[in-house]
Amino acid sequence: MYQILTLDELSLRLQRRLNRVERFEFSADFTRPGAIFVRSAQVPDQLITENLLVVGRAGIGINNINVKACTRNGTMVFNTPGVNANAVKELVLTSLLNSVRPIEKAADAVQNLTGENILEQAEQIRNHYIGGELIGKSIGILGLGAIGEQVARACFNLGMDVIGYARQPRNQNYFEQVYALKDLLSRSDFVIILLPLTDETKGMFNSEAFSSMRKETILFNFGRGEIVNNAALLSALANEQIQGYVSDFPSRELLQNPKIKLLPHMGGTTGKALQDGAMAAMRNMRDFLIYGTVRQSVNFPDVFLPFTAPIRLTIFYVDQPKIFSEISQKISAHNIEIDILASERYEGYVYTLIDLDEADLPKIRKVTNELDQIPAVIRLRLLKNPNWAPTIYL
Ligand SMILES: NC(=O)C1=CN([C@@H]2O[C@H](COP(=O)(O)OP(=O)(O)OC[C@H]3O[C@@H](n4cnc5c(N)ncnc54)[C@H](O)[C@@H]3O)[C@@H](O)[C@H]2O)C=CC1
Ligand SMILES: O=C(O)CCC(=O)C(=O)O
Q1: Which of 6, 82, 325, 381 pairs with 89 at a CA distance of 20 to 30 A?
Q2: Which residue CA neighbors atom 3 of ligand 2 most closely?
Q3: What's the CA angle centered on 5, arms 147 and 294, to 5 degrees?
């Protein structure tokens, strides 16, 4: 039985769907779980124990997980790229349109009208709510991944001049690519942050960045709060270096400022995006726990191998010269045949699936004990094929 800690809500319906073969137990209280399901909640480091095989992030940002510690521990971390990209794109567009038309204020004013001739009165006040248009305006997009690409395309189709900031050349005809942040900031009426939070992006919007911006510019942050230095932002707003700030990441010092609009980190919060993210996370988690296969990982290489043998070894180890021959020699020294294997490298580590043509468990355990002694081996698992003869007990 695998214990899955749910740090964010996971519907009972999805738990049942994952657990058709009843090999999983779900709880929000496990202290040494074998797996963690999470959205944006912080994953405490003390949960990264030798029990922890996998952390599944429904969504994309992984700044709430200590990925380096997970890798050192042989814990696979994956996310679910793209599942909420459309939801975020639609919220970005809603926010953009709202920033040029005072829709909420105008609608509130209409509700306060009294008397019989409401339409006539409404038409008399409409000139108090003259708005702007997006067409012909310039928009700078930082982060041209799943969301940024979609936002860029939609803005192009709205008739905007789209400028994109990316490190690698992109072959798209709906935005002009620039490589210098300053270039984008000095030319954009709207600037949209759709970057992940990393060492490189943290505090990217500092006083120097704000000094390159235009006083009419509205800055939108749907990436992560820490990408913007709040002290520099508040001073840029006070000194009219930019016009306004819209962010999906509220914090105390930004509250009650008329130039700032804050949303409750709701970019990915649509029924569809939540359902798709949780489904994808559960599928990846089940496949890793039961078959050892890896999909959409951020610290393991993706590896897939149909499971047709009785027993599978999964080995995560440091990539070193001759390490694989050491592993295979130890297996063959016990007269165990390797049926088939799959192996991939990723950033100094290797993940290998080895299917054994052998069902004699005591014999296999001798080998796994020896493999576990190899210093480069970080984590080794022995998996029973769930579709094989029921005489093997692990
Ligand atoms: N507000 C919300 O609810 C949501 C926020 N997000 C945030 O948006 C971010 C982006 O999401 P996706 O587009 O789905 O991810 P993605 O991984 O598809 O795209 C991220 C892009 O940023 C680029 N990038 C990374 N560092 C960069 C740098 N220093 N300079 C320039 N480009 C850089 C990457 O190359 C990639 O193209 C997430 O990491 C997350 O922080 C994502 C989903 C929902
Ligand atoms: O589900 C969430 O945490 C919101 C979406 C998000 O921020 C992400 O996917 O990175």
Answers
A1: 6
A2: 40
A3: 55
Smallest CA separation from ligand 1 atom 8, residue: 223
Residue 141 Cβ inside 6 Å of ligand 1? The answer reads: no
Choice from 55, 60, 80 to test ligand 2 binding pocket (greatest atom count within 8 A of CB)? 60
Q: How far is the CA of 61 from the centre of ligand 2 (A)?
A: 6
Q: How far apart are CA 39 and CA 54, in angstroms?
A: 14
- pLDDT digit string (tens) for the chain, length 394 residues: 899 999 998 888 888 877 776 789 999 999 999 999 999 999 999 999 999 999 999 999 999 999 999 999 999 999 999 999 999 999 999 999 999 999 999 999 999 999 999 999 999 999 999 999 999 999 999 999 999 999 999 999 999 999 999 988 888 899 999 999 999 999 999 999 999 999 999 999 999 999 999 999 999 999 999 999 999 999 999 999 999 999 999 999 999 999 999 999 999 999 999 999 999 999 999 999 999 999 999 999 999 999 989 999 999 999 999 999 999 999 999 999 999 999 999 999 999 999 998 889 999 999 999 999 999 999 999 999 988 765 555 5
Closest ligand to C-alpha of residue 222 is 1
Side-chain-facing half-sphere of 256: CA atoms under 13 Å: 2
Residues with Cβ < 8 Å from 63, sequence gap 6 or more? 196, 197, 198, 224
d(C-alpha 173, C-alpha 239), whole Å: 36
pTM of the predicted model over 0.90: yes
At position 167, the amino acid (one-letter code) is R
Residue bearing the CA closest to ligand 1, atom 7: 223
Ligand 2 pocket, residue 350 CB under 6 Å: no
Q: Residue 344 corresponds to which tokens in the numbers above? A: 């991939």
